[in-house]
């Protein structure tokens, strides 16, 4: 077990280094979602923020980093003269939470869930500023001008303080990290598969028809609930494929380089991240953090083969 854990930690460190080494380029784009609601980001990198224009100011979701935020501010100012009133954090991870100073200088109030804020305080970064408003519990509402936005905290899944955002009138949601259309899930580090599946079930109960995802490699600028369903189906397919491989005699250590899911081969990072997802699924099932859905046979027994 110690060797498996060490290998998993090495793989995690490699993936984090890969992710956080991304540099924002000058390929940013603005896409209109519905009236007064826009997506901003770089399709080459797959990082996207959302902003909402009201008759009393602008609400921004996820600053990413200073370079991204500078471009985002310029994009907003090309569309409206309204001031930036709020910057909202989706969760604690540095690749989403940096760059807030750009909007603080514009007079924005920065808000984050208590779990995210506590982590930020204990893990400072030169490009990270602490939120002005810290909220707790499962839900918060912000009303600004003619718009209302709901902040939904759905517990453990990925990151700390992970918040989904819903514009109930416009039926538009913003969802960070836990769903990325047409890309392998980033299923490492603090990615809890069991709780993610629960979260996806709860998100599907929210009343929205369009969704902006913080990461996207799909051709469409805007997604929807079908993308949530695709993510759930992937993890179910992955688990079933692992069990099928065990039945054929594939061992624990052979599994990540043996298992294939050809129905997902068009997803971004299929070759690079399918093995990572496989490792994570096997570890979480073996350690009891994700229930084995196919039948009760123990991965522990299979891993000893």
Automatic annotation (TrEMBL):
The entry's keywords: Signal
Cited InterPro entries: Metallo-B-lactamas (IPR001279), NDM-1-like (IPR050855), RibonucZ/Hydroxyglut_hydro (IPR036866)
A Pfam family that the UniProt record links to this protein: Lactamase_B
Ranges of residues in domain Metallo-beta-lactamase: 46-215
TM segment ranges: none
Cleaved signal peptide residues: 1-26
Keyword Signal: yes
Identification of the protein by name: Beta-lactamase domain protein
Taxonomy of the source species: Bacteria, Pseudomonadati, Pseudomonadota, Gammaproteobacteria, Alteromonadales
């Amino acid at each position: 077990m110690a060797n498996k854990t060490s290998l998993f930690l090495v793989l995690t460190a490699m993936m984090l280094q890969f992710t956080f080494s991304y540099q924002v380029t000058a390929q940013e784009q603005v896409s209109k979602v519905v009236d007064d609601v826009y997506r901003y980001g770089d399709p080459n990198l797959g990082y996207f923020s959302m902003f909402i224009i009201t008759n009393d100011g602008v609400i921004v979701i996820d600053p990413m980093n200073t370079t991204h935020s500078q471009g985002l501010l310029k994009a907003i100012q090309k569309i409206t003269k309204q001031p930036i009133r709020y910057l909202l954090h989706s969760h604690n991870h540095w690749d989403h939470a940096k760059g807030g100073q750009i909007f603080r200088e514009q007079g924005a109030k920065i808000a984050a869930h208590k779990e995210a804020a506590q982590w930020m305080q204990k893990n400072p970064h030169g490009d990270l500023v602490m939120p002005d408003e810290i909220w707790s519990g499962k839900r918060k509402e912000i009303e600004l001008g003619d718009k209302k936005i709901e902040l939904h905290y759905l517990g453990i899944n990925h990151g700390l303080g992970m918040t989904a955002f819903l514009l109930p009138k416009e039926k538009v949601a913003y969802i960070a990290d836990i769903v990325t259309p047409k890309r392998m899930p980033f299923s490492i580090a603090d990615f809890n598969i069991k709780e993610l599946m629960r979260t996806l079930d709860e998100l599907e109960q929210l009343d929205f028809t369009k969704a902006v995802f913080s990461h996207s490699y799909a051709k469409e600028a805007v997604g929807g609930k079908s993308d949530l369903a695709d993510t759930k189906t992937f993890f179910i397919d992955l688990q079933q494929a692992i069990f099928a491989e065990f039945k054929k005699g594939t061992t624990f250590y052979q599994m990540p380089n043996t298992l294939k899911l050809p129905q997902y081969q068009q997803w971004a990072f299929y070759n690079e991240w399918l093995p990572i997802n496989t490792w994570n699924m096997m570890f979480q099932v073996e350690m009891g953090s994700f229930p084995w859905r196919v039948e009760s046979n123990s991965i522990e027994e299979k891993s000893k083969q």
